[in-house]
Amino acid sequence: MGLSIAYGLMKKGREAHVLEGAYLNAGSTGRGLGVLKERNPYAMGNGNEDLVKLAREGLRLHGSLSSVMGINTFHKKSGCLIVAKNEQDLRELREDHEHFVKLGLKDIEMTPEEVQAKWPYIDSESILAGFYSPDEANAHPFGLVWAYLENLKRMGGKVEKENKVKEIKKTSDGFLVKAQSGDYEAENVIVASAIDSSGLTEPLGYKIPMTPMRKEVLISEAVRPFFGPTIERLSTHLQVTQTMRGEIMGTIDWMEPGHDLSENTTQFLNNLADALVPVVPVLRNLNVIRQWTGICDLTPDEKPAIGRLEECLYVCCGFHDYGVTMVPIVGKLLSETIIKKKTERMLEPFDPKRFD
Fold it and tell me: Are residues 61 and 162 in the same domain?
């Protein structure tokens, strides 16, 4: 998000300086699957349509990002299939289907036989139905970050790695940013540090309530590319996809809330295998290469905090596990908000001061 906002500012002729506390992709972005979805299931009954609009526009911009930036983000319009395994799944997905269709999204209900006919590797007896979007896609998080980084460099922007911000102080003509490698004066400051954002804004009087949510992910050996759409089951948070190199990546369930990224469990491996193999039996003997834990920043209403805290101070965080889809549109809209000094309409529902 920070790189995208800086890119948007520099495209408008502003100077931008990005301070990264660790290495690029050290946080949420580098630990995710890179699935790009517009059928966002969160905040139902609490402004979900605002999330969907933002995700839809983000998904659209991702489609042309490689061409615009001249660097491959490994965007792949693979689609996404959400499966129903039981009657409760089916009821909830049909309610979601009605909601998404009203918002103009493609959400095609398919019978098990239709699913298997289109993707023969899926066992029709393991599901009751599938809900398919051909528009949803994938991108490589590392490719995405690299594209923004290289474009910032071309435009003369500065990105400093391993330079953690310790404190932000207000001054008479802007802000003083105190970081590990020195102090920096800035007219505008944007805090886009995911779960760590509130630690920087709270001393200035702005607490962003967020829960650190941990989730395990794995990647397999590379196999012949055969996967069509990403496969999901919302009730268990199952999500499985195949990379362009052929690796299978997957996740399921949530761990206890917390910040510990060193914990990995055998239970996760068992749960993912138990959920995935009946649906895609051909993966039964797949060799797992690596497993890790990622972290997401969840706000009380499941919607991000994006926008102005006070004159020239902005925040961008709270994206749960759907932030990668919204990267290009949030960077565009927040940079325009900063330049115009007026919140763009699509960002109004995500006012970071709504928790006061």
Answer: yes
- All residues at 6 or more sequence positions from 256 whose CB lies less than 8 Å from its CB, including other chains: 214
Are the CB atoms for 328 and 62 separated by under 8 Å?
Answer: yes
Distance CA 297, CA 274 (A): 28
Report the domain count for the chain: 2
Task: Give the C-alpha separation, 189 to 257, whole Å.
Answer: 29
pLDDT in tens, 114-152: 999 999 999 999 999 999 999 999 999 999 999 999 999
One domain, residues 230 and 326: no
15 and 115 fall within a common domain:
no
Please give the angle made by the CA atoms of 353, 355 and 356, to the nearest 5 degrees: 75
- The verdict on 204 and 225 lying in the same domain is no
Beta bridge partners of 167: 178
Q: Are 189 and 338 in contact (CB under 8 A)?
A: no
pLDDT category at 46 given cuts 50, 70, 90 is: confident
Phi, psi of 111, rounded to the nearest 5 degrees: -75, 165
How far apart CA 323 and CA 10 sit, in angstroms, is 22
- With residue 145 as reference, give the H or E element that holds it: helix 141-154
> Which residues form the domain of 351?
2-69+140-209+300-355
Spatial separation of the C-alpha atoms in residues 62 and 65, rounded to whole Å: 5
Q: How many CA atoms lie within 13 A of 2 on its CB side?
A: 24
Which of these, 96, 71, 53, lies nearest to 346 by C-alpha position? Answer: 53
Name the pTM for this structure: 0.95
Residue 58 tokens read as 């983000």
DSSP β-bridge partners for residue 238 = 233
